[in-house]
Amino acid sequence: MKNEPNIGFLFYKDYYDSSFWTKIFLKGEKIKNQEGKKNYKQEVKRYFDNKNNNILKQNKLYPLQPLGKDHFTLKTIYPGLLFGAGYMHETGQDNEFKIGFYFDYTTGMPYIPGSSVKGLLRSAFKASESYIREIFKSNSLFCNVNEISISDLENEIFEGKKSIYDRDIFFDAVLIKSDNTDGRFLGEDFITPHKDPLKNPVPIKFLKVLPNVVFRFEFDLKDGILSVEQKLALFKQIILDLGIGAKTNVGYGNFEPN
C-alpha cells in the first residue's frame, strides 16, 4: 500500500482540488460568449478525464486479514456493484462522476458495510417466511430444521438478546481479488433517467465495481437454532438470490459463487 494512492481520497478530495475551484469552476461562472463557453467545456472535460482515468486505472489491492472466523466469497457479475449512491458527489459539470461511492477510509478500497449486509439478510426474514423455508427445503444441510420457528430464528440472529459474547457479528465485506485481465476493479457506467418524455435524457455518469471482482463476506457466528455452517449457507443463498447495494432492480449488486 506504500506509495499507492488512496482511491477514496482521489474520489472525494483530489477530485475537486483547488485548481478545479479557482481555475475552472469560478472562471466558468464569468464566461458569457459562446466561444468562451465552448473552450470552457473542453477544459472541464480534460480535467475530469484525467481525474476519472486516475481512479479507473488503479489495480493494487490492499491485503487485509479476515476479521471474522466465518466467511464465504462471492464474485460480482454483470453489470457490477454500486454502493454509496446516496453520498453527494457532483458540481453539475459534464463528465464528472455524479453519484457517491463507499470507500474504506484507511485503505481507500471499495467495501460493503457490515450493517448493510446485516440489513439485507434481515430484510429477507421480514419479507417472507416462506422464502426462508424454501431455502431450507432446497438444501439437504437444513434437513433437521423444518419445524423451527422463523420468527425465533430471526430474533436469535438479529436482535442480540444474548450476552455480547454469544451474538452473531456481521463485519464489512471486503474486496480481495479481481479476475479481470488487467487487475482493475473499478469502472464507469451511465443511467439515463427520462424526466420529460419530450426532451432528450441527460446521462448520469457514475463509478461502479466491475464484474469478476471477488468480495469476502465475514462473520463471527455462534451455534444456536442453526449451526454456524447452516447460517453461512443461509446467508450466502440470500445474497445470491436478492443481491445487495443500489440499483439491484436493474441487475446491479448480483453475485455468483466464487
UniProtKB/TrEMBL annotation:
Domain CRISPR type III-associated protein positions: 73-256
Entry annotated with the keyword Metal-binding: no
Domain of life: Bacteria
Keyword Flavoprotein included in the entry's annotation: no
Keywords in alphabetical order: Antiviral defense
InterPro entries: CRISPR-assoc_prot_TM1791, RAMP_III_fam
Any one biological process term the GO annotation gives: defense response to virus
Classification via NCBIfam families: cas_TM1791_cmr6 (TIGR01898)
UniProt-recorded name of the protein: Type III-B CRISPR module RAMP protein Cmr6
